[in-house]
Amino acid sequence: MPVVVATEAPGDERGALLAYLEAQRGGIRRALHGLTDEQARAKPTASAFSLAGILKHVAVGERGALRMMRGEPFDFQDQAGEWEDSLSVREDETVEPLLESYARAARETEEAVAALPSLDETFEAPRVPWDEGGRRSWRWGLLHLIEETARHAGHADIIRETIDGKGAFDLVFETGAMPEPDWSSAG
C-alpha cells in the first residue's frame, strides 16, 4: 500500500476500479522518478526487465487489453510479437515519450470505461495458450488490468530499490504523491 486510494462515492464501482488501477500505474511511474535513461534501461536483477521495459510493456499491455475489451480483431501471432517487442527498449526510446505513451493508454482506458452503460457489458476474450477465452465482463477486464499492472509495479519496486536503494514509500514521499506521516504520533 504505497498510496492511500481515495474512497469512491457510494455505488461508484467504476471510480473505485479506476482509482486502484491509477494507484498501480503511479507506482510504476514513481519507480522511474529521478533516474537517467541509462538507469531506466538497467537490468540490475535476475529479471529480464528494466524499469523502462516495464513502462513500455504496461502501456502496450493496457492498449492490448482495451482493444480486446472493445472487441477489436485479435491475431495471436501479431499480439505475441507486440508483447515480445514491448519487453525491449531501443536506444532511441527514452523515458519521457514512454511516460507519455502510458498516459495516453490510461486516458483511452478511462474514456472507454466512462462511456460504458455498465461494467456488466461483455466482450469475447480470445482463446490463447494460457486461457480458454470466452465471454467476460468489462469488470473482469478492469480487474485483470489492475492485477497485471500491480504485478509489474511490484517488479518496478524491486528493480528501483536495487538501482539506488529507494523503496516505494521513499518515492511516494519524494514525489509528493502522499505527504510523509508524522511517525511520532503513531500509537
Shape: globular
Any idea what the radius of gyration is? 17 Å
Strand arrangement across the biggest beta sheet:
1-2
> What is the overall number of helices?
7
Relative strand content? under 5%
Order of helices and strands: HHHHHEEHH
Mean of residue pLDDT? 93
Terminal Cα span: 19 Å
Tell how many strands the DSSP assignment holds. Answer: 2
Give the biggest sheet. 2 strands, antiparallel
Which bin fits the share of residues in helices? 55-70%
Question: Could you explain the architecture of this structure?
Answer:
This protein has 187 residues and is mainly α. It has helices at residues 13-31, 37-41, 51-69, 76-86, 95-115, 138-164, 168-175; strands at residues 122-125, 134-137. Strands 1-2 form a two-stranded antiparallel ribbon. The longest helix has 27 residues, at 138-164. It starts with 12 loop residues before the first helix and ends in a 12-residue tail after the last helix. 26% of the residues are buried. The model has no long low-confidence stretch (mean pLDDT 93).
Helix-strand blueprint:
Layout: H1 13-31, H2 37-41, H3 51-69, H4 76-86, H5 95-115, E1 122-125, E2 134-137, H6 138-164, H7 168-175
Antiparallel strand pairs: 1-2
Helix pairs in contact: 1-5, 1-6, 3-4, 3-5, 3-6
